[in-house]
Amino acid sequence: MKIKALLTAVILSAVIIVAPFAQSEPMFVTEALNSYSLGYMSWGVKHIGLDVLQKNLEQKGNLPEVKVAVIDSGINTSNKYLRNRYTNDGYNFLDNNTDVEDTQTHGTMVSGIIADCTSTNVKVMPLKVNGESGSGKMSDVNRAIHYAISHNADVINMSLSADDSKHSLTILDDAIEEAVSKGIVVVVAAGNQSGSTSTRYPANKDNVLTITAVDSSDKIGENANTGAEVDFALPGVLILAPYKRIMMVDTGTSLAAPHAAAAAALLKTWCKHLNQDQIVEILKQYAVDLGEDGFDNTYGWGMINLSGFNVNATPPEPATEPTTEPTTEPVEPTTMPMIIGDVNLDGTVDVFDAVMIQLYATEAITLDDTQAFVADVNNDGHIDILDAMDIQKFTVNKITEFIKAIPHNSGVRIAQ
Fold first, then answer.
1. What are phi and psi of 53, to 5 degrees?
2. Which residues are catalytic?
3. What whole-number distance in Å separates Cα of residue 65 and Cα of residue 125?
4. Cα dihedral 245, 251, 257, 259 sign
5. CATH fourth-level superfamily of 337-416
6. 253-270 helix and 106-117 helix, angle to the nearest 10 degrees
7. pLDDT tens per residue, range 339-396
8. I need a surface site. Which of 69, 102, 305, 328 has the fewest CB within 10 A?
9. Other Cβ atoms closer than 10 A to 166
């Protein structure tokens, strides 16, 4: 166990850490709202003008279904505030089944904010990659993105991040690139480490919308990450959202990101074929500058306010070419033609695979997503010396079986 603890910091390509909520104890709301008579749950809805945009879109009518894939810890299907607001094609990548029940509550709150900020045509597609502990495998996130693409998501929300202090993580790059090329808006949380977004993955990617958190006075949230990668600063402090079967107030960039995902979903409601670049330009046009003039590393382009958006304006023409070329084919969660332990992907599990794991553990080499997936031999969420030992035991057993099967007069000799 000591070895595993020492090597935990090396396992970044296999493990994700969800951007935490508040730094203090969450405030529970014992009297759950029975209706919207007290207004929207999140103060952020009105703060960024989504209440007005909702109303104007609903009056216009003929709202298309818009899917927001929430790659998180699932969703509490019994919470009445989420009733009829999620799709039936969600997926559990931890257990490879369709049970998307949230055992951690994080995904429920994120999904609840999206539902609160949007009209009923916007549906959450729950994609469960995190368990009760709030963490999971980056390879599952990669699979979830491909799943969202193949199941026609319009927006992807990832309120999660991993430490990328060495700027070495690339495991989601191809999947995100393909999603954006398909016209999907990819939104991620900046993280809550009181540090720089440059050290958080995928918040440090330039082809996602990275969102940090502010309070109702537009001041940067406590512990919210900032940096050159931040695109917008949105409501993320003391946000009321569904929690299990009731409501809860909490804080974090995890709660700011779904406000951006909701804004993108409403703009997709107005014009379904808008791509990410077009939506970013609209958000920048309706951004309220909070820091230095123009873009700055604390607030990005500032706080958006879409209350003045004209839903009767003529939408732009569909993009004639994708913004980037897709690089991979969609990967369905139930079809992973891989051999566990075959790290070098040569079709066999042998000593060379154990050596690759040992080299990875000492940071001598890196592994791509497929290699990381098959290298976790004992399926404990880490790639470490224990996986290499399992492969070595497997190899020894195979050799032993081979020796026992050799006739004594065969003339075959095993090198000493």
1. -65, -40
2. 72, 106, 254
3. 12
4. positive
5. Dockerin domain (1.10.1330.10)
6. 40
7. 888 888 777 788 888 888 888 887 778 887 778 877 888 877 778 888 888 888 887 7
8. 328
9. 9
